[in-house]
Amino acid sequence: MSTNDELAAALLPAEAFGPAADAVSVDVRQVTTGAGGDLPQGASVTPQCGEGVGGTAVSPEDFGVVVAQAATTDADVTVELLAESEQADAAGPRFADLVEQCRQVTITAPDGSSATVDLAALAVPDLGDASDGVRFTTAVRAPDGTNLTVPSLLAVATDGQRLLYLQRTGTGSAPLDEGAFTDLFALAFETQQTP
User: Strands 76-84 and 22-26: what pairing?
Assistant: First the structure.
């Protein structure tokens, strides 16, 4: 397995995110990933298949080495994560089943806030041992009635012991450029393969 420094060197260079992006290394435990984010204690998820939304997130404790970076622009935030484990294939992408079983999930918190997540397949390049993508839109309603809708794109690939995870989330409700995202995903995969 790689060291932290070796894995960090396999992340995309900052310029790959564009001239307006501010890219910084982040502690993966500080990054909320996936469609469900961090669910509040006591939150309910309906329908029951929606509990599979947690499968879109990365659990650092499942991997021996994990590095991440976040790139922020006015329009979006992109998180790239590389992780290695002897069981990386077990943590690989399984979005097709989730989307087929559960196209919409509602999360209700004890404080009265709620989030509705609409999931759909995202076509991504066929990379490594397995790759898959999902797009989701999260509509949040706060207890005071404030509404916010946020689009996200997520792609994952496994390559031997390594897992590549890339997620882009809009800072507003405008749709994200899926072509630019999948191009970045392919570049990230190529970059992590370069010795």
Answer: unpaired
The model carries a pTM of 0.85
In angstroms, rounded to a whole number, what is the distance separating the alpha carbons of residues 4 and 180? 28
Euclidean distance between the first and the last CA atom of the chain, given in angstroms as a whole number: 14
- Predicted local distance difference test score (pLDDT) of residue 4: 86
Question: How far are the Cα atoms of 29, 54, 108, 140, 195 from residue 61, in angstroms, in the given order?
Answer: 10, 14, 27, 29, 26
124 CB-side CA count, 13 A = 31
The total of structural domains in the chain comes to: 1
Q: Read off the pLDDT of each residue in 130-146 and give the average, rounded to a whole number.
A: 91
pLDDT tens digits along 26-84: 887 666 555 455 566 777 777 766 555 555 555 666 667 889 999 999 999 999 999 88
Q: Any idea what the CATH number is for the domain that residue 105 is in?
A: 3.40.1000.70
Element (H, E) at 175: none
Mapped onto helix, strand or coil, the DSSP state of residue 156 is strand
Which residues make beta-bridge pairs with 167? 79, 154
- Cα separation, 160 vs 168, in Å, equals 24
| Those residues with Cβ within 8 angstroms of residue 192's Cβ, 6 or more apart along the chain or in another chain | 10, 11, 82, 159, 162, 164
